[in-house]
Amino acid sequence: MDVELGYSLQPVSLIALLPHAHFLLHSLSPSSCLAMCSQDIRNTVGNIPMEWYKDYPHIGYDLDGKKIFKPIRTKDELDEFLDKMENPDYWRTVHNKMTGTDLRLSDEQVDLVHRLQQGKFGDVNFNEYEPAIDFFSSEVMIHPVTNRPEDKRSFIPSLIEKEKVGKLVHAIKMGWIKPRRPKETAPKYYDLWAQEDLNTVLGRHKMHIPAPKMRLPGHEESYNPPPEYLLTEEEKLAWEQQDPEDRRVSFLPQKYSCLRAVPAFSRFIHERFERCLDLYLCPRQRKMRVNVNPEDLIPKLPKPKDLQPFPTTQSLVYRGHTSLVRSISVSPSGQWLVSGSDDCTVRFWEVSTARCLKTVEVSGAVKSVAWSPNPAPFLYPSPAFTLYSILYMKQVCELGAVEQRAVRPFHCIRISVLCGSQTLLVYICEYRAVRQVTWHGKGDYLACVMPDDNSSLQVVIHQVSKRRTQNPFRKSKGMVQCVSFHPIRPYFFVATQRYVRVYNLIKQELTKKLMANCKWISSMAVHPGGDNVICGSYDCRLAWFDLDLSTKPYKMLRHHKKALRGVAYHKHYPLFASGSDDGSVIVCHGMVYNDLLQNPLIVPVKVLKGHTITHDLGVLDVAFHPSQPWVFSSGADGTVRLFT
Amino acid sequence: MSQLQARFFTENKKYAIDDVPFSIPAASEVADLSNVINKLLEARIADHKHVEFDFLVRGQFLRSSLASHMDTENISTEEVVEIEYVQKFTAPQPEECIMHDDWISSVEADSEWILTGSYDKTARIWSLEGKAVMTMAGHTDVVKDVAWVKRDGLSSLLLTASLDQTVLLWEWNSEQNKVKARHCCRGHAGSVDTIVVDPSRTKFCSGSWDKMLKIWSAVPTEEEDEVEEPNRPRKKQKTEQLGLTRTPLMTLSGHNEAVSAVLWTDAEELCSASWDHTIRLWDVETGEQKSMLTGSKVFNCISYSPLCRRLASGSTDRHVRLWDPRSKDGSLVLLSLTSHTGWVTAVRWSPSNQHQLVSGSFDNIVKLWDIRSCKAPLYDLAAHEDRVLCADWTDSGLILSGGADNKLYTYRYSAYVSDAGA
């Protein structure tokens, strides 16, 4: 039992009891003298909320009109708690709001509180269940309590009722009141979906898969099937020995003389059950099959017809060489073609007529020729000499000569070519086998490749105007296949067997290393814009690098059947060509856009055939005409061909 | 459809027949129609001799059966077909084959003499019978073009242009058979590929690989022009100088690539074809470009016919194209004649017939065309064994062609029906 709870429920009655308790407890012990002194103080403020005195030092006024001061009370929450824990009489201590003091209830007071809480009378001695006499019971006594006769009104009909009934009858007559509800004529059942739109139904059943239909009964199910449907004895035996799943029909066809003789179908429940299982378990799933048209996977490329002009037919054949034509080069004006061959000659051709105007014999097989890109003649410093065209060629020499000539590995010979004023400058390296020469776009520098796996002197750069030669690389990074100058910026491309390294010639550092993804690079060409490079390789691939994009090839073209030997870009037209050992030159449209967001468009447009394959070698070099969309190719059959 | 209604007519009064429609078999070809006309003529004229005729349906030569021709030309077979007939052009008769030492780069003939330029650095004069008359050796490189300037009695002036960047003006005396280089025209910075003399015979124009056209005086004088280049004289001392140096009167620049052919359309107008895919018309007086015709291929050669006022061009494809030089910029090709299989390197209009032209090509064949039959030529002159480089057609009806097989062929082409084709 919780005393505090009880106290809080009935504070008024308890307080009301307190004066009696005071008289009961009067002069009990000297210890309670202080309490008694305080008991004399009777607050006269009345039944008011004591919070009104919250802010005052007094709590009310006594009978004499003096202030009753609040007892000094220093109990805080902690003291309260300690008191609660330690004081055994805490539960019977109550706070008198009127005086602000604590009272300890006596046992009688607590008992009284308990009684009141239980709803009992405060007086202990009061018996609430004393015996009672039942005067008005159901038992009829011989002497009624009252003997009054019945009223007259209990025998005559009630007028008020008659009036009420008359009113109702009148109302029914007038039709104000319907005596009975009319019967509902609407049908009890109706088509719930009668009003529904067909389209919404279809929409709801978009994914509807109809249940598998049951096969309609055939002749076998007939009670009187044709005799060919009836099973013979062996067939019956075989049917019984089969697993139920393997049976063609789940029942034995039987013949009855008349429909009356047909017994009830014994497997009816079984069959219905199986049907339900079929409906329930049949896989109602729609498989999403991705229907891809294989033609959609091919990228949308423009038709070659729309990408004209590009070379389409063989127009001229430049005949004269007796051996492989290793290299060709076209003069910047487009008037002359020079070709170097294994028959130790360099020939000059007039492009428009295929006339060989000059043949220069040299002492070794010519591996590479390159026409100076400088169209204007420039003065050669030491002798007053006009230099029109410069070629480079390779001379094979004995190894014994290397030491002797090591002091001066390069020297040049001038040969008068074409007209009197035009001069062929022949650099001869008697040092090692030269593979390739290439010009810088301005025509002052030329680079020469002498592949050697071990030597650091694989690439040399000559400056023509100062007659100076330098070796740009201190270390060998593998066998150099070909080199090329960047057309605009001071970059230098060096292709080794698998990689193309891009060097910055001014900073003298490696800028980029392009992974060609092929076994052995054979040739390389730099786009005139300078941001794209193509590499041909001996494993039939052509890799297009976009230097802005990545160091991996942007496109790999595998349209040649044999090793590629030469690749070339056109200077103005968006064309590039590749020549291969399969005897064909493939011309591709390679459009490079100024917009950085647009990747180059590469479309193979034409396969040019003409060269005959000699000793398993087909086309050895390709070159574009500088101004026309024409491509030249030189082949192992000793011819140079022009395709326009 | 087996029968067609046809009405025949001709402009040659000699072979005129009645103007009535005939019903002729649709499958009939040129020979059948020719027989029909001959039969009619025999019935009309007692002493008629058999003549081969050629037939034109709406200005197009009949080259297949009548039905198929009308089918391809979209001519209705319901109506009466108007068929014009002309006497058949006889094939050019080969006359001479003149052997040279080297490739023949150019040829120009007049009524008496043939002038050829060759890759052996010489130009030669031949008689029409094929007799070598004169050899002019003076160029240090291949002679690319030659031209007659004029003839005063026995002495003639002629021009040779060469790869050595000069044009030489020669004076040739046919009586004494002596030749003298009068002027050496210097100024081009590339090989001079083409020269042409103006109608007044006092000027000539040259086109070069240095993209320039230069106009020079063709009148021989005794003075030498001053050369502007300061370092030239030193050079001149080295090389032997042939004739007096001459400098151009005017330079026309505008082409972006080499000039491959040049001609005068009249006294005041110059026409040049170039490797930059354009044909440009120039006003000679002002030196301004008047108009431009743009093609899609490199032009190798052009020819102009004052009779029909058409330009014919040969380019580095298989077609001979006809242009109207008077139309505005970007004009369309009027017609293309397609039968060659190689680059067309020479075209030349007939000087007398406005419908005919001759073309030479790298497929070794010279073709004689009538522009009314653009699908097939009139005749193929397949004498050359190598590429044809040049062709000419003289006023006297001589067709000449020279090529890389070192041979110059001449054909006599009877111009008897020059009026019939009109």
UniProtKB/TrEMBL annotation, chain A:
InterPro entries: BOP1/Erb1 (IPR028598), BOP1_N_dom (IPR012953), WD40/YVTN_repeat-like_dom_sf (IPR015943), WD40_repeat_CS (IPR019775), WD40_repeat_dom_sf (IPR036322), WD40_rpt (IPR001680)
Keywords noted in UniProt: Nucleus, Repeat, Ribosome biogenesis, rRNA processing, WD repeat
PROSITE patterns: WD_REPEATS_1, WD_REPEATS_2, WD_REPEATS_REGION
Span of domain BOP1 N-terminal: 53-311
UniProt GO molecular function: ribonucleoprotein complex binding
Pfam families with a match to the protein in the record: BOP1NT (PF08145), WD40 (PF00400)
Places the protein is found: Nucleus, Nucleolus; Nucleus, Nucleoplasm
Gene Ontology BP, a term: maturation of 5.8S rRNA from tricistronic rRNA transcript (SSU-rRNA, 5.8S rRNA, LSU-rRNA)
WD repeat start and end residues: 318-359, 612-644
Signal peptide: none
Tagged with keyword rRNA processing: yes
A cellular-component GO term for this protein: PeBoW complex
Family: Belongs to the WD repeat BOP1/ERB1 family.
Function: Component of the PeBoW complex, which is required for maturation of 28S and 5.8S ribosomal RNAs and formation of the 60S ribosome.
Assembly mode: Component of the PeBoW complex, composed of BOP1, PES1 and WDR12. Within the PeBoW complex BOP1 interacts directly with PES1 and WDR12. The PeBoW complex also associates with the 66S pre-ribosome. Component of the PeBoW complex, composed of BOP1, PES1 and WDR12. The complex is held together by BOP1, which interacts with PES1 via its N-terminal domain and with WDR12 via a high-affinity interaction between the seven-bladed beta-propeller domains of the 2 proteins. The NOP7 complex associates with the 66S pre-ribosome. The PeBoW complex associates with DDX27, BOP1 interacts directly with DDX27.
Protein name: Ribosome biogenesis protein BOP1
UniProtKB/TrEMBL annotation, chain B:
WD repeats by residue range: 97-136, 136-180, 185-217, 252-292, 292-324, 337-373
Compartment list: Nucleus, Nucleolus; Nucleus, Nucleoplasm
Region (Disordered): 220-242
Main location as per UniProt: nucleus
UniProt domain NLE: residue ranges: 4-70
Keyword set, alphabetical order: Nucleus, Repeat, Ribosome biogenesis, rRNA processing, WD repeat
SMART domains with a match to the protein in the record: WD40
Annotated family: Belongs to the WD repeat WDR12/YTM1 family.
Protein name as annotated: Ribosome biogenesis protein WDR12
Organism: Pygocentrus nattereri (Red-bellied piranha)
Gene name, Swiss-Prot/TrEMBL: WDR12
